[in-house]
Amino acid sequence: WLRSDGISSVGPYTVVSSSRIKDNGMPLLTRIAVSYSRPAMIQSSDKFIANGEWDGPPIVLKKYKLLLFTVPKVGCTVVKQFVRRVLGFPDWRKDNGFLPHAPESNGIVYLSHFTRQEAQEMMTSPLWTRVMFIRDPKERFLSAYLDKVVNNYSKYIAKKDCCKRAKGRVKNMLKSGPTCDANMSFQDFLPFSKACPDPHWDAQIDRLDNKFWPYINFVVHLETAHRDMEKLIHRVDKYVCRPRKLCVGNDSLWNRYGANGWGKSGNEAVFQTKMMVKHATNAGGDAVERFYDRRATKLVEAHFANDYDFELFRFRKTNYRGITNRLLKLVGL
Question: What is the pLDDT of residues 60-85, one digit of tens each?
């Protein structure tokens, strides 16, 4: 939907390509110019409204005018730990399967806790920062496989309702014949994931209704989350915290909650280490090379074509020609 001039029309909104916008060195895609003449209206049928989902309605930090759209397998544990730390929970580090994720017990405030009128303003007002957390689709898909199949001994997928209903159909699709409760290979996981949708491996563009994408004005890439989160929090300090006298001197949001207190020793910044970024399923680097041959890469990139083609995300597909050229250069050919 992006025109060659970098400007696109999405319904009543005009979106200017972020590649043409600079914001004091902010990471790419952090600002999208939007015409608010006819703001998108929240409806009860909107996909991100569903209450009860662990990553359904966005997290609200009203004091700082922040909406955080967490996405499964995109550092959502660390994001929720950060939010609980800001909210003052002494057990903000806890990660036991329910905390920090379960909305009924984590103490986090979500958009569904507000009236529709309040939520409408938060979703469309230029005074609010709406943050989407994203990750390279191949790494995220592999992370879902390692977490929900390998490390979980397939117990997660065996309990899925769609799996129980579609067991025969899935078996036929997979050709090799593994049932839903069997340990399946990574090659079998792709057709399985198509038959059984799940937030952990669904396309990231499906996280939000199309009408609201133009209002996302900050994007955090998991691959650069430490840098992006620091810039996000400094932005809140500059435009919200200090003008409203919520922080004075060195008592900034970044210094209090982001700059330290993280990691095993408590001397790291949020998202600073690879283990913090990749959580329990290290799906980057060597793991990608181990699981993705050329065929698997093409299949997964095709499956997530909408993510790769969405200009806001700026994901890059694997350039096999570039890889081949670099290899030839290394061997002197």
Answer: 999 999 999 999 999 999 999 999 99
pLDDT digits (tens, 9 = 90+) for 182-217: 678 898 899 889 888 899 999 999 999 999 999 999
Element (H, E) at 231: helix 225-236
Highest mean pLDDT among 26-35, 130-139, 191-200: 130-139
Closest among 264, 254, 198 to 227, alpha carbons compared: 254
The distance from CA 276 to its chain's CA centroid, rounded to whole angstroms, is: 15
Residue 222 has pLDDT above 50, yes or no: yes
Single-letter amino acid, residue 164: K
What are 91's two structure tokens? 């057990």
CA angle 322, 323, 325 (to 5 degrees): 65
Is the pLDDT at 36 greater than 50? The verdict is no
Neighbours of 37 (CB within 10 A): 8
Return phi, psi of residue 285, to 5°: 55, -115
Residue 80's Cβ-count burial label (10 Å; 0-12, 13-18, 19+) is buried
Q: To the nearest 10°, the Cα dihedral for 103, 107, 113, 119?
A: -100
Listing DSSP states for 99-118 in one string gives TTT-TTTS---BGGGS-HHH
CA torsion through residues 161, 164, 170, 174, sign? positive
Which H or E element spans position 253?
helix 253-253
